[in-house]
# Entry
Amino acid sequence: MDGNSMGHDNDKWGANQNWTFSFDQTISFDELTFAVINEDMILKSTGWLGDTDATGTGWSFNGITGEFTILGSSGSGTRDFTSAGVSDIAAGTDIAFGFFASAGGGEELTSFGITVIPEPSSMLLSLVGAGLLLRRKRS
# Structure
């Protein structure tokens, strides 16, 4: 998705508005990239409740509420959440992104990064298939 479809300036973001999304597979959420950021923004999911608090460059995480706060004062760039040690997000679990205080001042979400976590059954089928291919080559 491009920035204009994900949230640009006040066209998409107003006071206490957010953008909610979910995936049909279990994922780990890795990063967000911004073109501009002037205010703190929030990324929240019930998938992260109960994890410990953590702080990184340009963000902090509250495990009680399951919220990443992206710090506007740190400016544009990529916020890497891989060091937060949070749990994976189950398929169909909502992730809400937006700001919950004042309206946008030029914020633009450029991209986000996720890693798909394969289901155990899918992984098992892949291993069985690879084993059969190796066995077939030997025959």
About this structure: The helical segments are 3-6, 9-12, 120-138. The chain has three helices and nine strands. The longest strand covers residues 27-36.
